[in-house]
Amino acid sequence: QSSVPSLTSEPNSTMLVPAGDHYTMMDFATAYFREAQSMQGLKGTSSEKKSAASLVQHTKVPIQESLLRYSDNELNELATKNFKTVMRFMGDQAKLKNQNEVECIYEILQLCKEKETLHDEVYCQVIKQVTHNLNQESVLRGWLLLNLLTGYFLPSNILMPYVTKFLQLASGDPSSTHHDIAKICQSNLRKNFMYGGRRHLPFPVELEALLKGRGARRLTILMPGGVEYLTRIKTFTVGKELLQEICEQMGAGEPEEIEEFVLFAIRNDSNNLGKPIRSEEYLHDYLLEDKLVTVTVRRLIWRTPLHFENKIYTDVHYGQVLWDYLNGRILLSYSEEMKMQVGVLAMLQHCAKIEQQNSAPSREELKEYTPKSLQSSISPQALQSHVGMLLRTRQALQPMDAKIQFIEHVMKLPFFGYNTYVVERVSDGTISVPCFFGVNKEEIIVVDGITQAVSCVIPLKELQNMRTLRPISDGGLPGIELNYGSAVSPKTMWLELSQAKEMYHTIVVILEKTERHH
């Protein structure tokens, strides 16, 4: 056990930001360092102050025992070994044969991942080695380590205020070479405290970039409608920060509206399965080394009224609504009324194209303007004459106005706003399969695959809990178990579908966003 209690599993309620002259690292060393215990006889003398200060200052000699007292010999040995690794990485000791800088960092981070009781020790070692260190290159390396430590691992509740104070002092000195990175460390620690730190250790390629001074990685976000948004994300950027940046670029900067969008990480494989990135999740935890992940953004909730004063905003909403309409994300069933709607929406799509202002659409174009699920039910001839008539008798529309009218028309369709999934099996024998499950901000609905009648409604506020289920057999489909209803009348339903994980995580994100809204 450490003399400094490690973090308990209980989350902290408040992060202490110290004021005044208290909580310096020297105060901490005097109270908790192993060596300070043996200097008790010098109490109050100037030599005691000098000795106490030396405890938290750079040394060229490896430590022989851990800085903090551990009764466990293994921890003591791991601590002294780690100090040598820190020295090798910072250039204060020669590296081992065939050992490179990236391996040094991994060794330190891996130790912290495996031994939570050593978090405080490692923090103290790195802070000691960047304090009063005259070698600028070595100092820079030490701060790079602190940058990673603060984003991945929290110090204990006892050490936290001292580390916070140390970073506060370092970032408050504009003349120092490390005041910018100290500010980044402060931000990392705050995020770590609030969101729990990054889950996966960095890939070598990310560490190599950091060592070359590249602290940000280029990322292309695929927006609806094929718009690409180029940005740079840092080592510890969370979903919330990126989403806010994208929404502000679109002119949707109000917190209530930002909450209605979500980032998706989509695997670029045969399944194209996506998972929503929650606001407190670190983007790098989703970005694989092999670049097999695309990050997209979608509007998930439609509560805030739309406003079309920004061109990017209009294009993004048009792109999403159009794709959903044409590709079966919005459930449509054939009727005479729907046939008329398809004509109006085809005309609006045609007017939305700048280059098509004065021409009538070809048969090929009209097929592109028709939802896949209705192409076999609607006669191309009838559609062509209907659209032709609409174009002749209506006032000419500017492309932006056509896009806005298209969005407003589609929003009136009965199943607009539901995230739709095809379900192959359901435990409820009264529901014929395959069927559709739709999820919106209020409820889960079950829709008949042929008639599109709604056979079951589960209000989200009645959802007690849910879990994902593994496929029962090889080649089988994954599933979800839903527990809902009241304490008096509990109900359970399980369903099987290829997009089980995406549906599960989408419901989780909607519940979280709705809770924050209330």
Give a description of the structure:
It is found in: Cytoplasm. The chain is an alpha+beta fold. It has four domains: 25-201, MyTH4 domain (Serine Threonine Protein Phosphatase 5, Tetratricopeptide repeat, Alpha Horseshoe), CATH 1.25.40; 216-299, Ubiquitin-like (UB roll) (Roll); 332-412, no CATH class; 419-516, Pleckstrin-homology domain (PH domain)/Phosphotyrosine-binding domain (PTB) (PH-domain like, Roll). 42% of the residues lie in helices and 15% in strands. The chain is built from 18 helices and 13 strands. It has helices spanning 25-32, 34-37, 46-55, 73-90, 101-114, 119-130, 136-152, 160-171, 179-195, 204-211, 239-250, 255-258, 311-326, 336-352, 363-368, 380-393, 399-410, 500-517; strands at residues 216-222, 228-234, 261-267, 274-277, 293-299, 419-423, 425-426, 435-439, 443-447, 454-459, 463-469, 479-485, 490-496. The strands form three sheets. A five-stranded mixed β-sheet has the order 2-1-5-3-4, sandwiched between helices. A four-stranded antiparallel β-sheet has the order 6-8-9-10, covered by helices on one side. It has a four-stranded antiparallel β-sheet with strand order 7-13-12-11, covered by helices on one side. Helix 4 runs antiparallel to helix 5 (101-114). The longest helix has 18 residues, at 73-90. The relative contact order is 0.07.
Structure summary:
It is found in: Cytoplasm. The chain is α+β, with helices and mostly antiparallel strands.
Q: How do the strands and helices of this protein lay out in sequence?
A:
Elements: H1 25-32, H2 34-37, H3 46-55, H4 73-90, H5 101-114, H6 119-130, H7 136-152, H8 160-171, H9 179-195, H10 204-211, E1 216-222, E2 228-234, H11 239-250, H12 255-258, E3 261-267, E4 274-277, E5 293-299, H13 311-326, H14 336-352, H15 363-368, H16 380-393, H17 399-410, E6 419-423, E7 425-426, E8 435-439, E9 443-447, E10 454-459, E11 463-469, E12 479-485, E13 490-496, H18 500-517
Parallel strand pairs: 1-5
Antiparallel strand pairs: 1-2, 3-4, 3-5, 6-8, 7-13, 8-9, 9-10, 11-12, 12-13
Helix pairs in contact: 4-5, 4-6, 6-7, 7-9, 8-9, 13-17, 14-16, 14-17
Domain FERM: 217-518
Family: Belongs to the TRAFAC class myosin-kinesin ATPase superfamily. Myosin family.
Keywords: Actin-binding, Cytoplasm, Repeat
